[in-house]
Design brief:
Elements: E1 5-14, E2 19-21, H1 22-29, H2 33-40, E3 44-46, H3 54-69, E4 78-82, H4 93-100, E5 108-111, H5 117-130, E6 136-143, H6 156-159, E7 165-174, E8 181-189, E9 197-198, H7 214-218, E10 225-226, H8 228-249, E11 259-262, H9 267-277, H10 288-291, H11 298-308, E12 317-324, E13 328-335
Parallel strand pairs: 4-5, 4-6, 11-12
Antiparallel strand pairs: 1-7, 2-3, 6-7, 8-13, 9-10, 12-13
Bound molecules: coenzyme A (COA).
């Protein structure tokens, strides 16, 4: 057993107050509540208003996570921020958040693993704690998708799927408890599939001189491009395979796990994963109905809601799996 064990000491989450139902999107996007619900399971999502930024959402989630962990911000010694929708291209959101929270001095870095961001971040936090480098790490997943979507009928296949929100966890060190804490991870990436789900601009690969040009904007290259079917098929396959492998590493089976938190991209993806692995539906905590896909925020947001609903309790064995742009995918197993 490692000399130090990492565990989730506190969780917080936040979504902006404005909720938009599928009906609210019908006119603007030439879509329908029936299409969205049948194909994705989404009923509503939260979108920010005004000049709210991704770190503004994160601040609220962090405050709740610190309170839940019964720690002060001065106790935190590292920030890991997972997002694909940062306040600015650089510096990373870890730095902006740190300034807003007045937590200057501690290391802060961003990771860009899209929908798998939280699982990658959890694995990194776990590794830092196991080697004794940090004691209380703030891991954040936060997104504002609404400002980056093509909200015209042309963009409806992507725009209806995404919501804004933030989740945060405090990952802390403790003396190892047998069979406890964060136990195992499984991380993957396949850059050959990058263009199945990607954001072309701004970027250095498109123009000899500029990262952003008027032509790029006219061509709508600032909006995400997605091959929905490829993403769907791969998500089902890779999430199932990865979770199976992570459980096997720890000598556990599906039946040993008390609650599953999957990335929330499409309710049908999660239903299929559950079907393939033989997971009883009541053991999968889905939130896509209320939030849509909130990318890196999804898993901590779900855990916070499950905790509040009494579905997640201390001592439970928790399985997680996610899949997203990159492609990136992975899974984690932990004793909450
Ligand atoms: C996006 C997704 C819901 C689309 O479902 P689908 O069954 O593959 O649907 P298609 O893209 O084939 O489109 C079917 C029809 O619906 C239409 N359509 C697409 N978006 C629509 C919308 N929001 N409202 C109404 N109609 C829509 C299409 O134009 C198409 O019409 P056509 O048959 O006349 O050409 C599904 O592929 C999916 O969820 N994929 C995974 C996406 C994902 O997980 N993304 C995030 C990764 S982390």
């Amino acid at each position: 057993m490692a000399a130090t064990q990492a565990y989730i000491k506190g969780i917080g989450a936040y979504v902006p107050p404005r909720a938009l139902t599928n009906f609210d999107l019908e006119e603007q996007l030439d879509t329908s509540d029936e299409w969205i619900q049948q194909r994705t399971g989404i009923v509503k999502r939260h979108w920010v208003e005004g000049d709210t930024s991704t770190t503004d959402l994160a601040v609220e989630a962090v405050k709740e996570a610190l309170e839940d962990a019964e720690l002060k911000k001065e106790d935190i010694d590292c920030i890991i921020f997972a997002t694909l929708s940062p306040d600015h291209d650089f510096p990373g959101n870890g730095c902006w958040l740190q300034a807003k929270m007045d937590m200057g001095g501690i290391p802060a870095f961003d990771i860009r693993q899209q929908c798998t961001g939280f699982i990658y971040g959890l694995s990194m936090a776990d590794a830092f704690i196991r080697i004794g480098q940090y004691k209380n790490i703030l891991l954040i997943g936060a997104e504002i998708h609404s400002k980056g979507l093509d909200r015209t009928p042309e963009g409806r296949n992507v725009a209806v799927l995404f919501g804004d929100g933030a989740g945060a966890c405090v990952i802390s060190a403790r003396e190892p408890v047998e069979g406890g804490g964060i136990m195992a991870h499984d991380l993957f990436a396949d850059g050959n599939s990058a263009k199945e789900l990607w954001l072309p601009a701004p970027g250095t690969a498109l123009d000899p001189e500029h990262r952003i040009t008027k032509k790029m904007l006219d061509d709508k290259l600032q909006y995400p491009v997605m091959n929905g079917r490829q993403v769907f098929m791969n998500a089902v396959k890779k999430m199932s395979e990865s979770l199976t492998m992570t459980l096997k590493k720890q000598g556990k089976t599906i039946d040993d796990v008390d609650m599953f938190f999957f990335h929330q991209a499409n309710l049908r993806i999660n239903d299929k994963v559950g079907e393939i692995l033989g997971i009883p539906p009541e053991k999968v905590f889905n939130t896509i109905q209320d939030y849509g896909n909130t990318t890196a925020a999804t898993i901590p947001l779900g855990m916070r809601d499950a905790l509040k609903a009494g579905k997640l309790e201390r001592g439970m064995l928790v399985g997680m799996a996610a899949f997203g742009s990159g492609f990136t995918w992975g899974s984690s197993l932990l004793r909450f």
